[in-house]
Structure formats: C-alpha cells, structure tokens
Specification:
The chain has 199 residues and is an alpha/beta fold. The protein has one domain: Nucleotidyltransferase, domain 5, CATH 3.30.420. Helix content is 35%, strand content 20%. A seven-stranded mixed β-sheet has the order 3-2-1-4-5-7-6. α4 packs across α6 and α5 runs parallel beside α6.
Length: 199
Amino acid sequence: MIRNYGGIDLSTKKSGFALINEEKELLYLDILSLKEVIRKTIEYSCVLVGIDAPLTSPINGPWRKCDKLLLKMGIPCLPPGAKNFSKLTKTGIYILKELTKRGIKCIEVYPYATRRRLGIATKINKKSSGGRKILIREISRVISDPNGFLDKSNHHELDAVISAYTAYLTDKGLCQIIGDKEGAIYIPAAPEDVDHATH
C-alpha cells in the first residue's frame, strides 16, 4: 500500500492542506477549515503530517530552544509565545491533539527552513505572483503534479505542499530534529541527502 503524507499551513480559520504520496505525487491541495483538514487527513490515511505552526508553548518567555536554534542558523522565525502569535500556537496544539487521538502522527515543520536547507526559491516573495511562479517551478522539481493543482495555488497552499514534502523526507530518514522536549522542528538534514529527481 502506498504511503500518504499530509501538510498543513495552519491558520486559526482556514488552512492550506496538501497531500502527497511516497511517489511524490500531489494528490490533493486546497484551503480548508480545521474540521475539513482532520476529515481529509483521516480519509487519506496519512502516515505522517507536517504542520506549519508551533505545536508546543514556550516554558519561559516567548521563545523555545528550537526557535532560538533556527535563529542561530540564520533562519528567521516568529516567537510562539508572543501575544500576536499565541492564538496560532493554541490552534497548533489543538489540531495536534485531535489528529494524535485518531492515531495520526504529526510533526512540527517550517516550510521556509525546508526551502533554505534544500535551496528552493530562498530569495523570493511568496506572496507576489512572480515569486509564486518561481516557487511553483522549484517545487515541481521534487513533486509531480498530474492534476495541475500548483498552477492555481496561493502561498498558503504552497507552504502546505512543502510541509507535506518535509513529512515525506522525515519518514524516509532525511530530516533532523531541531530542539528538545520543549519543542522540536523537523528540517531536512542536508541538501546532498535529499533526492532532487525531476519528473
């Protein structure tokens, strides 16, 4: 049976959701409510889901160790404990609980960190049409898109695709964990370890 991987660009309202299989085919891509995300994840029997949102709260202050480690690596990120970010963190903890109790394994991912590690469109503005075109072209080098989902995607959906791809890489043993028990973010281990085969 082919293994499926989910990717969620989490929001407190509508979230980007992507689904790929172990052959790196994009099977589904859309903007969904949290209930719909949970339903689709179960429907496709995802073996691993990458969630682009904090899945734990900092113990002290606005930062976790994993966030500080990303900053030391030169990868900018936002503090999960900050007032304007705490609602997303709570939503992340909620969906982690909902999926975990249904037997679905989840990991915290950060699409920009994945892009930086793999050299995927690292200097573009993903919110601009030109930036998205470049990002879509780069993603198409590692993900096949037989249904043409990427052509109509927005930046939330593209982050969801990268989150799903990070889950795939993790399942194949090609990611490392940044952080500790307080919080852990999965990022690709090194560019040379990842299959960049084109389709």
